[in-house]
Amino acid sequence: MSDNYYEIQKFNKWWMKLLLALPILLFIFGVVLGKTNSPEGTSMLIATVVVVFIIVLFYFTKLETRVDETGITIRFFPFQRVYYYVRWDEIESATIRSYNPLMEFGGWGLRYSLKNGKAFNVSGTFGLQLVLKSGKKFLIGTQKQTDLNNYLINLKKEFQISCIQ
User: Fold this and answer.
1) Quick check: 122 and 10 in contact, CB under 8 A?
2) E strand or H helix at 81, and its extent?
3) d(Cα 127, Cα 134) in Å, to the nearest integer?
4) Whole-prediction pTM value?
């Protein structure tokens, strides 16, 4: 087993793009109607600039996950500049599970929950649940739960990693 498991996830839902495009479309509609010199036009311009900034932020945001025989590395760029690394000997249990992002963590992104710990997720309802020996919990979302699960099974067999469930 020489290859590592590596996954990059991005925010790319159609409804998110539509929601972010609405203020831009409203501004263009205001330009067509000649309302850009009014106070409403200034407000629309400010809203458009903010939305363009958010779109650019979403475009560059990505969740990177790497799993190998030494541990798990994650980064939620650009919010985390440095990779977060956890060694297998620091982990009590590692399990692929389904979850409800809204109910358990309040949504998607880099999220915190008093009950469920930290979540790194972009979309979907499957993730790698980690419980550390320190008691900390966190979940890493995945769009490739079958691939990740198969990789973990092989990793457990080859390297006798006991925390992998």
Assistant:
1) yes
2) none
3) 20
4) 0.81
